[in-house]
Amino acid sequence: MRMTIAVLLLGLAPAALAQRPSDDALTRGLLNLATMQQLAAALEYQRVVHGAYRLGGSEAETAALLAVDAAQLRDPWGTPYRIEILEKGGYRITGAGSDKKFEENGDTASLGADSVLLGGAFTRSNRAWLLGFVTEQQKSDQPLPTAFPRGDTYRVVTTPGQAWAWLRVNEIEAERAATGDPAVIEAMRERITQDKMKALCETFLKGRQTWHNVRTVRVPRIDDEWGTALDVVFPDAEGQHVRIVSAGADKKFDRESWSKGIVPSLDEDLVYDDTGWARVLDVDALAQAFLPPELQSHPSMTKLKTAGGQQIYKVGGDVSAPVVVLRDALPYPAELDGHGKIGIAEVTIDANGKVIGVKPMLGLSADADRMLSDALRHWEFRPATRAGQPVAVIYNVTVSLTPPR
To answer: Which residue in 362, 349, 354, 334 sits closest to 394, CA to CA?
Structure first.
């Protein structure tokens, strides 16, 4: 009898294993549900803050209204979500699944099953089936550096554990945004305002490539999420730099605070210089008010240490970003031949604010990279902090190269 049972179990094992999705497929399935909940949270935020659910006439307009990356209007397999604002109130979001066919029938225990989210709650989904494959080890190993990844999350969230965490974050955010929970709404206000500031600054920098002077770039008024117009400041007479400022929740600009460290208050002015944040609130710190500990971001500790033995972290969670306090002008590589270029340099900054390593990532020649590295090594920073203590970090600095006038 025991031998018969063992044979039967062994015979069933390959079939059971065959039904388990690969890690990539499991990640996509979870991301599909997470993105639908992300869209639901965005719609609920619109209703609470702006008084109505709104969609645009194009994907770009809808993405801007919902304050999401345009990639999130499509599922992980590339099919656009069907988002409907209902006449009697509320909304409906439908995902086609991996088969790319909208067919709301049949078994939901597959990646091809349609999912339907009505007014913030799934009325049809493969959630239970998918979660049955997520192990406790994967949940505990989810290394999301932030509870609010920016940009195309399909490129950022790449493992089942991360996708599980991203799903739970969006479920909690959507549910609590629907009730107007102040902690969630204010964290969303802050995140969207930060994204607006960065995007506005990038608009000026792109315009500078054409006009060689940010002062000549014309953009429409853009308000922060508290209804105050973002202030645009040109700190140099030559028009090569731009500073974007939000007045914060109190709607009052406090210029004397711009050179000081920020305190954890929504009333604080936010300042974004063309090379990065000079004053910014940590959205992950705000999220601690509504996310359980297992979903809160944690500092990403690298395997690296400085020559003096300092542990090197990545910025995120309770590791705040360093702030530029002194910058040298960047050289203009001759190989650009009159064209501008914006890119990233990965900078390692020690706990004293000194640059100890630079890795330009602009796709230029070795000679150009060497010139940029030498210039960036002369920059000085107010160091990153963790729990109020200065720490060494790896930090991406936006590099903008413009031809000499």
So the answer is: 349
Residue identified by tokens 């006449």 is 87
Q: 46-80, pLDDT tens digit by residue?
A: 999 999 999 999 999 999 999 999 999 999 999 99
- How sure is the predictor about 317, in pLDDT bands with cuts at 50, 70 and 90? low
Q: How far is CA 309 from CA 15, 82, 312, in A?
A: 52, 53, 9
Instruction: State the Cα–Cα distance between residues 284 and 9, nearest whole angstrom.
Output: 47
Per-residue 3-state assignment (H helix, E strand, C coil) for 115-137: EEEECCEEEECCHHHHHCCCCHH
339 touches 206 (CB < 8 A): no
Q: Do residues 179 and 315 lie in contact, with contact meaning Cβ atoms separated by under 8 Å?
A: no
Instruction: Say if residues 214 and 207 touch (Cβ distance below 8 Å).
Output: yes
Angle between helices 182-211 and 23-45 (to 10 degrees): 100
**How far apart are the C-alpha atoms of 70 and 161, rounded to whole Å?**
24
Q: At what angle do helices 23-45 and 160-178 cross, to 10 degrees?
A: 20
- Computed over every residue of the chain, the mean pLDDT equals 86
With a pLDDT cut of 70, the percent of the chain lying above it is: 90
Q: What is the DSSP letter of 180?
A: T
- Rounded to whole angstroms, the Cα distance separating 397 from 319 reads 16
* Long-range contacts of the stretch 226-234 (C-beta < 8 A, 24+): 226/189, 226/193, 226/251, 227/251, 230/196, 230/197, 230/200, 232/200, 232/204
CA distances, 314 to each of 202, 319, 349, 370, 396 (Å)? 23, 7, 11, 24, 10
Tokens of 53: 């659910």
**What's the DSSP call for residue 370?**
H
Classify residue 106 as exposed, middle or buried by CB count within 10 Å of its CB (0-12, 13-18, 19+).
exposed
Cα–Cα dist 3/225, whole Å: 68
